[in-house]
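We now fix the convention by which a protein and its fold are recorded. Here is one such record, which you should read through line by line:

>
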Amino acid sequence: MFAVLKTGGKQYRVQPGDVLRVEKLAAEAGDKVQFNEILMIGSTIGAPLVSGAGVVAEVIDTIKADKVITFHKRRRKHSSQRTRGHRQQLTLLRVTELLETGADASDVKPATGARVSRRTAATTAQEI
């Protein structure tokens, strides 16, 4: 049996035992997280979500993706150019079980993205 879940703006087809790389989640290595936005599980298709369904996964590690380099060059005389790089932070997960029903009553914490606002980051930098 498999499920289709949605997290980080992307959809993943998963089975128990699969290892996924998803957008960074607010969880530490060894934590269990539950995804509640399930689009399909087994032969049940949601409209748009399957109510009461969930996918439980264990966090393996937080990693960084390969570096992506962007280069902008403006033509002609007196032009400028800019090179920037970015490494997306990812969370490595291992799917442990698929719950067709009863996900609402489980004691596993729901998976949420790790977002830090600029104001919080700036305040933390000033405090240090």
